[in-house]
Amino acid sequence: MKIIKYQHYHQTIWDSFVRNDAKNATFLHERSFMEYHGHRFEDFSLLFWKNQELLAVLPAHVVEDCLYSHQGLSFGGILWHRYVRLQEVKEVYQALFTYLQEWSLEGFYFSPTPTIYHKAICEEDLYATYLFGAKVQACEVGMVIDLEQPFPMQDRRWRAFDKAKKHSLSVEKSVQFEEFWTQILIPQLTEKYDRLPVHNIEEIRLLAQHFPLQIHLYTVKKEEELLAGVVVFEHQEVIHLQYIASNTVGRQVGALDFLLFHLWGNVYFHKRYLSFGISNTQHKQNALNEGLLEWKESWGARLLTHLHYGIDFRP
């Protein structure tokens, strides 16, 4: 097993593997996505080769004396070749842990890609890391609708949609990220949660330019007034709602209900899952935002855990 530390000249090989070969990777793991905030992290990404074949890649960075995969992404962990076998997975982890200890690193912390994003069954790594002593460090609550077998929505969602239809609302796909950020998203996040979006306006515009087939903004207007919007991250089988926000008028007329019904029924009806993202509070990972969780459940979403694991090499 040969481990190579990622350098910029590996980008073509890395991205080709993520797009075409890896069974648990998404566009979030391409270098153009990872490196929009590269200045915030000390990159320590790795490539794993066996007999001149690329078996796996690891998006990662170092914090103090530990390796993380990846604090700048929703999920990470080792990304595996579609045809990898369990024995090879165990070999990769054994080689990784030896390599990290040679670098005097004292632990490995990772957040595996949730199963709904897998292109093929991929849980060999969970078994292998269990054998090596991985422990759950945190459990985040993701909320997901299985669009092929959805739970019933609450009646209030239908009532809000019926109300919205009376207000001459229009949905459009937009590239006006700055308008949505400044008029809707930032004011609402600041007022409700006292925080800012994970991506600033320059970052989201850059990412949308790099990934025009995956990152989309949909807005709702009444005449020319912007009322609500959703930023969609589109994956192979999953529609992830990265940002959802509405102003006061939008809430009064049911603009978000109007928009989500439109996306579900007219745009992404062919997808398997709709993800609302996590419902944990920002400041305390193991605490839930009960109001947000209940709103997502009202759409028929149910819980999908995002587990975070760690392995400590110290005696």
What can you tell me about this protein's structure?
Strand 5 (61-63) and strand 6 form a beta hairpin. This protein is 33% helix and 29% strand. The chain folds into two domains: 2-133, Gcn5-related N-acetyltransferase (GNAT) (Aminopeptidase, 3-Layer(aba) Sandwich), CATH 3.40.630.30; 145-304, Gcn5-related N-acetyltransferase (GNAT) (Aminopeptidase). It has ten helices and 15 strands. The model has no long low-confidence stretch (mean pLDDT 95). It is elongated. The protein has an eleven-stranded mixed beta sheet with strand order 2-5-6-8-15-9-14-13-12-11-10. It has a four-stranded antiparallel beta sheet with strand order 1-3-4-7, sandwiched between helices. Helix 3 (86-102) packs across helix 4. The chain is of the alpha+beta class. The chain has helices at 11-21, 31-34, 86-102, 124-131, 155-164, 177-193, 201-210, 248-253, 255-267, 290-298, and strands at 2-5, 42-43, 46-50, 53-58, 61-63, 66-69, 79-80, 107-110, 135-146, 169-174, 215-222, 225-234, 238-246, 273-278, 302-312. The longest helix has 17 residues, at 86-102.
Shape: elongated
Helicity, as a percent range: 25-40%
What's the CATH class of the largest domain, please?
Alpha Beta
Radius of gyration: 21 Å
Structural class per helix/strand content? alpha+beta
CATH topology grouping of the largest domain: Aminopeptidase
Identify low-pLDDT runs.
none
Tell how many strands the DSSP assignment holds: 15
Q: Average the pLDDT over all residues and give the rounded result.
A: 95
Sheet with the most strands: spatial strand order: 2-5-6-8-15-9-14-13-12-11-10
Number of discrete helical segments: 10
SS strand fraction: 25-35%
Give the topology string: H per helix, E per strand. Answer: EHHEEEEEEHEHEHEHHEEEHHEHE
